[in-house]
Amino acid sequence: AGLVPAPGSVVRAAASRLLRAGELDPSTRLGAGGWLDEAVDAYHAIVQRPEVRELYLAGERIHEVPFTMRVDGGMLRGTIDCLVRTAPGRMTLLEFKTGRPRPEHRTQLELYRRAAASVCPESVIDARLVYSGDV
């Protein structure tokens, strides 16, 4: 399976299956329907970017990679959006974001890169933030 544009109804159905009870505050401005609309829009914005498609399709992909690592005396748990094996001994970490770039995104990306390096010590890890909007 590749990163391909899919009809909005297919993306919406997939996104709705991922939404767990209690994850969406019903008092938000969007509600579940608006959240799903935004998810569909973000997906289509990302898959239509040629540089992202090329990188995504460059090799084996591993999605939703959980990790736990020690940071500053505490434990950090997270989930890497996607790792792509782009060549033997080389992987690219893709961290997908909506909204505008923020400084904490770079901090998170570096922490995730370190986590990926510990999970895949035989590989050089490149890391990239992928925004759904124009940046």
The total count of helices amounts to: 4
Q: What is Rg?
A: 16 Å
How far apart are the termini? 27 Å
Uncertain residue ranges: none
Q: Which strands sit side by side, in order, in the main sheet? A: 1-2-3-4
Annotation, overall tally of beta strands = 4
Order of helices and strands: HHHEEEHE
- What do the pLDDT scores average to? 82
Report the helical percentage.
25-40%
Shape: globular
Return the structural class.
alpha+beta
Amount of beta strand: 25-35%
Q: Which assembly state applies to the chains in this document?
A: single chain
Q: Specify the biggest β-sheet.
A: 4 strands, mixed
Notes on the structure:
With 135 residues, the chain is an alpha+beta fold. It is 39% helix and 31% strand. The protein contains four helices and four strands, in the order αααβββαβ. The chain has helices at 8-18, 31-47, 50-56, 103-119; strands at residues 60-71, 74-87, 90-97, 124-131. Helix 4 (103-119) links the parallel strand 3 (90-97) and strand 4 (124-131). Helix 1 packs across helix 2.
Describe the protein's topology.
Layout: H1 8-18, H2 31-47, H3 50-56, E1 60-71, E2 74-87, E3 90-97, H4 103-119, E4 124-131
Parallel strand pairs: 3-4
Antiparallel strand pairs: 1-2, 2-3
Write out key terms for the chains shown.
135 residues, alpha+beta, four-stranded mixed beta sheet, 4 helices, 4 strands, globular
What would you say about this model in short?
The chain has 135 residues and is of the alpha+beta class.
